[in-house]
Amino acid sequence: MAQLSLDHLTKVFTDDDGSDIVAVDDVTVNIEDGEFLVLVGPSGCGKSTTLRMVAGLETVTSGDIRLGEESIADQKPQDRDIAMVFQSYALYPHMTVRENMSFGLEESTDMSDDEIHERVEDAADLLGIPELLGRKPGELSGGQRQRVALGRAIVRDPEVFLMDEPLSNLDAKLRSQMRTELQRLQEDLDTTTMYVTHDQTEAMTMGDRIAVLDAGELQQAGTPLECYHRPANRFVAGFIGEPSMNFFDATVEGDRLITDAFDYPLTEEMREAVDGANGVTLGIRPEDIEVAADDSPTGGDEFGTTVDVVEPMGNENAVYLGFDEDPTDTFVATVGGMRRIDAGERVVACFPSDAIHLFDDASGDALH
Ligand code: ATP
């Protein structure tokens, strides 16, 4: 069983002035056997520190790390059955690809030369790089180097892979190709994997589940679709999804939700959800906003607005809409890329009640 469990994991650094930096704050999450978990969050939220503690490159301040039933928090890195792939690839420049891939096995195992040879050949086949085995890293492209770094982890056949932004040095096209390759590889090998990225697209497309971190704290762990459709709080709602969710300050008056731009009838379910909340933020995703020409009323609770900026995104346009009261304050809707829509145009916007997310102002927690 290669279930990896982080149990109230905490890391506190002390800076030069003697003050504490809580980099990882009481994080509890399980990565099931064979699961691909993506740890995602903004820069500085504690992703790398978490991964480095699991690898044994950083000590644990408190909490535990278990592989199966066994605590590994105090084990030396080389005693943990874990292989890490770094953003920088960390290849030895003077060694050939074959030597880079076999070096770790020669140093830290008593495997025979034949077995090492076979493992390197198998990994090279799996990664589609058998013709590169005789080359040195300086003679490889970025994508090829990244494959070698992966190969070095694969030959160890570890219980767990840890990957720290392994694709961030690649250009956009290669990154999306390697994303697919990595997913295929993980399906073939079925190795428990913890993958760190700050890129929510990478998280959404690659993870069986994602764990969203902010300021060292776990905000939500769930499937990509759970985090997208049922974000636990305002942070997750704003972090997952591109363009980001729109947020509107709202107050509850009777059976209506009032914002500066529009007011909205509360459904029974929404009324129960906001009962007792201090203040409410209404969230609506850009793709849930319908935009229609001013002369084509859509029915329901629509409101007038003016197109500020249109940003083509290929098959869609991001349309930034200004409020009548304050045109500099905009919100964003996505519409089909073929649709003609221009800055300055007067339009009406509306959205269905089941697309509304409500958050408590004070805690940021989702209310329904
Ligand atoms: P990024 O995406 O930018 O790599 P991250 O989410 O991986 O960021 P970490 O590198 O884990 O974040 O850093 C978390 C916090 O801990 C940051 O505030 C960082 O400045 C701090 N930190 C990390 N390493 C140390 C260290 N060795 N000493 C002191 N503070 C540190």
Automatic annotation (TrEMBL):
Keyword terms of this UniProt record: ATP-binding, Cell membrane, Membrane, Nucleotide-binding, Translocase, Transport
Q: Which organism is it from?
A: Halobaculum gomorrense
Protein topology in the membrane:
Peripheral membrane protein
Q: Name one Pfam family in it.
A: ABC_tran
Q: Which GO terms describe its molecular function?
A: ABC-type transporter activity; ATP binding; ATP hydrolysis activity
One BP annotation, GO: carbohydrate transport
Query: Quaternary structure?
Result: The complex is composed of two ATP-binding proteins (XacJ and XacK), two transmembrane proteins (XacH and XacI) and a solute-binding protein (XacG).
Q: Which residues form the ABC transporter domain?
A: 4-240
Query: Into which family does the record put it?
Result: Belongs to the ABC transporter superfamily. Carbohydrate uptake transporter-1 (CUT1) (TC 3.A.1.1) family.
Function summary: Part of the ABC transporter complex XacGHIJK involved in the uptake of xylose and arabinose. Responsible for energy coupling to the transport system.
What SUPFAM superfamilies does the record point to?
Answer: MOP-like, P-loop containing nucleoside triphosphate hydrolases
UniProt-listed InterPro entries:
AAA+_ATPase, ABC_transporter-like_ATP-bd, ABC_transporter-like_CS, ABC_transpr_MalK-like, ABC_transpr_MalK/UgpC-like, Mo/tungstate-bd_C_term_dom, NA-bd_OB-fold, OB_MalK-like
An example Gene Ontology cellular component term from the record?
ATP-binding cassette (ABC) transporter complex, substrate-binding subunit-containing
The listed locations are: Cell membrane
Question: What is this enzyme's class at the first EC digit?
Answer: translocase
Q: What is its EC number?
A: 7.5.2.13
What is catalysed by this protein?
Answer: L-arabinose(out) + ATP + H2O = L-arabinose(in) + ADP + phosphate + H(+); D-xylose(out) + ATP + H2O = D-xylose(in) + ADP + phosphate + H(+)
Please state what the protein is called. Answer: ABC-type D-xylose/L-arabinose transporter
